[in-house]
Amino acid sequence: MELAITDLLDGFEPVPKSYSRPQPLAGVEILPLQRFVDDRGLFLELYRAEPTHPGTEKLTAFFAGVPVAQLNYSLVTASDHVKGLHYHLGQSDIWFCPPPSKLKVVMLDLRKGSPTAGQTQVVVLGDGKDALVKIPPGVAHGYKPLTVPCGLFYVVTRCFDLDAPDEYRVPWDHPLVRDLWPVRNE
Fold it and tell me: What percent of the chain lies above the pLDDT cut of 70?
């Protein structure tokens, strides 16, 4: 038996759920990683300078032309907050959320000449979604920890300079991103 709209209670008119996937921001790259699991635990390869055997070409290509200047690790031990939305003019970041942490990355394209200028992208990392995210200059980025504690390992293409930091802020609740932080219950 099929129902008609008139068979539903008032206020429950059907609104089709969207399964469309938003396009990624120009220059943002996501590389899924291969997790090797056995009865002792797991292994993930996060960086490779050259492909020495079949299956390692994608990781090598992901880092091709990326000058690794600094490796950082951040651990958040507080809950229910957002870690700074910020951007760089010259630096690229590559982010990885190590197991068992999980976080939501929110990005906003601030580049005038970009085909995705003013658009946003959300990526959930960790908790089994093992991937690297490459964030180019001019794309604001921040994250909301979904686990406590929550770890973030990241590579940057320029060393941090306290006298001339290449880091600029965007309010976490800017109108273009404020609705992206909550965990969606659909």
Answer: 99
Sheet of 29-32: strand order equals: 29-32, 131-135, 93-96, 150-156, 70-76
The number of residues in the chain equals: 186
One DSSP character per residue, 60-107 reads: HHHHTT----EEEEEEE-S-S--EEEEE-SS--EEEE--TT-EEEEEE
Please count the structural domains in the chain.
Answer: 1
Give the domain range for residue 43. Answer: 24-179
Q: Which tokens sit at 96?
A: 């990885």
Quick one: pLDDT at residue 17? 76
Domain membership of residue 13 (yes or no) is: no
The answer as to whether 99 is a domain residue is: yes
Query: Domain holding 74: CATH number?
Result: 2.60.120.10
| Residue 28 maps to a domain | yes
Structure-block tokens of residue 66: 């990326």
pLDDT, averaged across the chain: 93
